[in-house]
Amino acid sequence: MSDRTPMLAQPLRPPSAGRAAAYLGLFVLGAAAGVAGALVQPAWFPGGLLLALAGEAGLCLGAARAVGGRAGAVAPAAGWMLAVVLLTTSRPEGDFVFAAGGGSYLFLLGGIVVAVMCATLAPGRQPGGGPVRLGK
What's the superkingdom here (predicted)? Predict the structure, then answer.
């Protein structure tokens, strides 16, 4: 047997209470950003749409940096998506938040694309310390 024994994977632990509260707060902020974006995007067509998508991107990337992992970007993205999906449903009164136009579809699909991009571009969790070559 060699002196290089493989490292066993650590079992997953549930998040601490503070981290869970942070994720819940980011989820609520994402929902608020979704509602605000839904109201802003039709105001000044190209500018409102870009402002709403930039707000979502800033929230997702900022949350990922603040938490220090990709889950920080996923929490507000999930809140945004839930709020926007709930706003697209029709009501018995016949009221809609989203008009049947190109801007609304760009907001819905663009927001999903922005959320996926932010979650993949966010830094993953890395061990602390200086830069080293792992595996040597």
Answer: Bacteria
How many Å apart are CA 63 and CA 71, to the nearest integer? 9
How many other C-beta atoms can be found within 10 angstroms of the C-beta atom of residue 78? 17
The most distant pair of C-alpha atoms in the chain lies apart, rounded to whole Å, by 74
What are φ and ψ of residue 12, in 5° steps?
A: -70, 135
What per-residue confidence (pLDDT) applies to 95?
A: 65
pTM over 0.70: yes
CA distance 123 to 71: 10
Q: Which residue has the tokens 């067509």?
A: 45
Taking residues 56-83, report their average pLDDT: 91
Alpha-carbon distances, residue 120 vs 69, 79, 80, 92 (angstroms)? 10, 17, 17, 39
Q: Provide the sign of the torsion angle of the four alpha carbons 115, 55, 87, 95, taken in this order.
A: negative
List Cβ neighbours of 15 (8 Å cut-off, separation of 6 or more). Answer: 23
State the pLDDT at residue 53. Answer: 93
pLDDT tops 90 at residue 68? no
Contact between 34 and 81 under an 8 Å Cβ cutoff? The reply is yes
